[in-house]
Write a structure and sequence with these properties.
Length: 390
């Protein structure tokens, strides 16, 4: 059909659409409130290749564009008020940014945050009032887990001073550490810890360094230790964003059966998991549901099962938590992908060199989620593949 056009919004205040021959046309819109007169003027000289200038097809394009623009205007007005309350600048879109599992790779983590314009070249917070969510599994596998923990602790303080926010979620590897299952901790990091205990001793064997490193690591997991203080404060779920960017974040994703045992808001889920981590949780149905293989830290139902099985879980969770989309990590993919017609987005691309070593992240601005890589940006809109059974 010659009326097949695709319209999307951009942070630089443009609308982009394509004719039947896939020729792209951009319409640049001014900053500020959008009125019918503004749109009429912007479109007055536009002609999409493969489409007539004055036909019902073009009229449909104009009406569709106006509907999109009107929705954006309302969203900008609402988000602008929120930003003003938080000390942000009027007219600038609020950014919601997320990165997947980092697994002890400080260098790759910093490179990803720089790519997303969250930190500067010195690793200092550079994103103003933006919100950054890290979906868990900072620790294990790579050799700089402790440095990553310290980095995100520092960025949290710097972001708060700038009116922004940093949220680090609980992952299954943080849970395993609190359970003293430390077999995924990097031997390099353990030996480095052990070496600190033999600072003035010559001729220490690698085995001795490793043994002392294990002791030192377990001490960090005891009450008052660096890792214990960090992990026992991590939320399991977070709902962040406004309008079409309102997103529920979770390491592996919530399933609908967890809602049926009272885990139907962020406070109840997070509080119950904190009780588990602090070893004050009685053994009941709720604690088991949080930490087993179908829990929000471990399940792979949403990322691997057919969409006919996964999407009903997603839809019910989105309804209960009043969110537009769910973003999860946990399962490594070659690139950030969508399922359930865009309602589920999977952002673990193996940033750590213990996996793929690929730099990339996710952001949502003006209701449009985007995957950002070193050489390309990709709008995460539903594709024909989204309608398959996965």
């Amino acid at each position: 059909s010659r009326c097949r056009e695709c319209i999307c919004t951009r942070p630089d205040h443009t609308l982009r659409f394509w004719g039947a021959d896939r020729t792209e046309t951009r319409v640049y819109l001014p900053v500020g409130p959008l009125h019918p007169e503004t749109l009429a003027k912007a479109f007055s000289e536009v002609k999409v290749s493969g489409m007539p200038t004055v036909t019902s097809c073009t009229m449909r394009l104009l009406l569709t564009s106006f509907a999109v623009a009107a929705a954006l205007a309302l969203h900008w007005m609402h988000a602008g008020g929120q930003r003003a309350h938080r000390g942000g600048l009027q007219g600038q879109p609020h950014r919601l940014v997320a990165v997947g599992d980092l697994h002890g790779d400080l260098e790759q983590g910093l490179a990803t945050l720089q790519l997303l314009d969250v930190v500067d070249a010195q690793g200092q917070w550079n994103a103003g009032d933006a919100t950054l969510v890290q979906t868990g599994d900072i620790v294990d596998r790579g050799g700089n887990s402790l440095d990553l923990v310290r980095l995100f602790h520092r960025l949290r303080g710097e972001a708060e001073q700038a009116g922004g926010q940093v949220i680090t979620l609980l992952g299954n590897h943080e849970l395993m550490n609190m359970q003293h299952q430390i077999n995924y901790v990097s031997p390099i990091e353990l030996q480095r810890l052990g070496a600190q205990r033999f600072e003035n001793v010559v001729g220490v064997q690698h085995g001795e360094l490793l043994q002392e490193g294990v002791k030192a690591w377990l001490e960090l997991l005891n009450d008052g230790g660096l890792l214990a203080k960090h992990i026992t404060k991590l939320p399991t779920v977070a709902v962040v964003g406004e309008g079409l960017c309102r997103t529920i974040f979770c390491h592996a994703g919530l399933l609908s059966h967890q809602l049926q045992v009272g885990l139907n808001d962020t406070d109840s889920v997070n509080q119950k998991m904190w009780e588990v981590l602090r070893k004050n949780q009685p053994h009941n149905r709720e604690s088991h549901g949080l930490t087993d293989s179908y829990g929000p830290l471990w399940n792979r139902v949403l990322s691997k099962e057919p969409e006919s099985m996964a999407c009903p879980h997603v839809d019910e969770v989105l309804r209960v938590f009043n969110a537009t989309q769910m973003v999860i990590g946990h399962t490594v993919h070659k690139q950030i992908k969508t399922r359930c017609q865009g309602r589920l987005q999977l952002i673990d691309i193996g940033i750590s060199r213990a996996y793929r070593g690929r730099i990339g992240g996710w952001e949502c601005v003006h209701g449009m989620p985007t995957a950002r890589y070193q050489s390309v940006e990709k709008r995460l809109v539903p594709s024909p593949a989204s309608f398959s059974t996965g």
